[in-house]
Amino acid sequence: MRLITHLRHVDLAVPDYDKQRDFYAGVWGLTEVASDSGISFLAAEGSPEQYVVRLRKAAEKRLDLISFGAASESDVDALAERLRAADVRLISEPGKLDTPGGGYGFRFFDLDGRTVEVSADVAVRKHRKLEAKESVPVRLSHVVLNAPDIDATRTWYETHLGFALSDTLAHPRMGQVMHFMRCNPQHHSMAIARGPHTSLHHISFELRGLDEYMYGTGRLLRAGVRMIWGPGRHLAGDNTFSYFLDPHGNTVEYTTELEELDEDTWHPHVHDFSQPEVTDQWGTANPMNELIAKESFNDVDRGVFVAPPV
């Protein structure tokens, strides 16, 4: 039984906090809704989530945590019990949260040592419908994680958190390189990419539509933000993509029109990404090559099996 409903937020720690905060609250188009000494909570204008990114000032860059939603406190408790019975290492027991919007949740380590939070009953943020040509993120779309053994990580998320496989990318020489995983009808809320070490691959943000996605892509290019891949349209998920680097070298994506699946009838495909139309149906993006792939390997994550301090 699936107890996870959706992706809530992705939390990052960085040494140059001011530069990172200026990027996300500035050209990237998020809205700072709360801040404390060395911590910033950033919301997407069209999202009911209290925040979609949390930034924390730290000596070393790391992924602090990934947060998912659950439908109720009883579902949070049931999931904690399920994980405990399976000897998954809990960081905290279910209880009241003191982040913006409150709620009830707990944290644990996944197979690769990432901190995961699951919460329910978080207050809904007052949000709004974005206007035509307004090129800021509507919501958080998905997160992609690098893992040395993508099959083991996929199985862990299927077994313990009820995620389902939507599609897989493979290559004739390299074998399987990415699993797209869903926790609701959206094609993927998370994907697992094959990388040399545990790290963040990219965070993706949904824009209002094609026009807004292109306006946003252009705004970033004019601002001198480095685009590593795009603009284009993937086959798996059928969503658009423009990948940029944030000031600390994390890959962040503007996307739109991510496919919604009929979960009862969907069967996963294996797509051969050596075929150019698999990576980009439009043929407008720069070719995917080893240099681009290495950008998204990111640095070795210093937060593996180390819970964030807040």
TrEMBL record:
Organism lineage: Bacteria, Bacillati, Actinomycetota, Actinomycetes, Streptosporangiales
Annotated organism of origin: [Actinomadura] parvosata subsp. kistnae
A family per Pfam: Glyoxalase
GO biological process, one term: L-methylmalonyl-CoA metabolic process
Domain (VOC) ranges: 6-121, 139-257
Protein name: Oxidoreductase
InterPro entries (alphabetical): Glyas_Bleomycin-R_OHBP_Dase (IPR029068), Glyas_Fos-R_dOase_dom (IPR004360), MMCE/EMCE_epimerase (IPR051785), VOC_core (IPR037523)
Organism superkingdom: Bacteria
GO molecular function: metal ion binding; methylmalonyl-CoA epimerase activity
